[in-house]
Amino acid sequence: MLSDLPNVLTLSRIAAIPLLVLLIAINQPIMDLLAALLFALAAATDWLDGQIARTRAQLSDLGRVLDPIADKLLVGATLMVLVGLRRLPFAGIYPAIVIMLREILVSGLREYLAQIRVGLPVTRLAKWKTGTQMASLLILLLGDPGARLIGIGGFPAAATGASLLWLAAILTLITGWDYLTAGLNHINHSHETR
């Protein structure tokens, strides 16, 4: 139900997005640090809500629908603000586009497959993609000024975050292709059995 702790954590991830966008938009080192911390907390709820749902046997259809939506909203909003403020170095708009397009593709595919009662399980590589993506966004939010603020001024946050974003985009392409081919196989199989 809506009041189950896993669903509350998922909803908190969605509720954090306007504050996150505001902090990023202020574009000051202290706000970047706060945005990075808020993003880290929101990203942690993605792992935590699943763990709690499984250990407490609170898996629900609502949670299965809300969880990926919350993830896509968090990542999408963060990417859009970073692109809008020109804070993605090394042509970072291109991996951002790849990530956004894959998320839309997989969401549409999952919605269609749900109608024919077929699920697409999350693969291990997709979990690595998500982890890399979240790490890249966290580091990009912190940025070089935020890194200096917390005493790691020699750390190339922008370059590291951008490199991880490109790696996430590569993993995004691979996992997107995997989901697309698996989904198309299910679709073809369902049409053959009619």
Describe it for me?
With about 190 residues, this protein is an all-alpha fold. Helix content is about 80%, strand content about 0%. The protein contains six helices and no strands. Helix 2 runs antiparallel to helix 3 (about 60-85) and helix 2 (about 30-55) runs antiparallel to helix 5 (about 125-150). The radius of gyration is 18 Å and the shape is globular. The relative contact order is 0.13.
Order of helices and strands: HHHHHH
CATH class: Mainly Alpha
What's the domain count?
A: 1
Task: Decide which structural class fits the backbone.
Answer: mainly alpha
Rounded to an integer, what's the Rg over CA atoms? 18 Å
Percent helix range: over 70%
How many helical elements? 6
Shape: globular
The CATH architecture can be named as Up-down Bundle
On the 0 to 100 scale, the average pLDDT is 89
CATH-defined topology: Four Helix Bundle (Hemerythrin (Met), subunit A)
Largest sheet: none
Cα distance, first to last residue? 35 Å
Low-confidence stretches: none
> What fraction of residues sit in β-strands?
under 5%
CATH H-level homologous superfamily name: CDP-alcohol phosphotransferase transmembrane (TM) domain
Please provide the count of β strands. Answer: 0
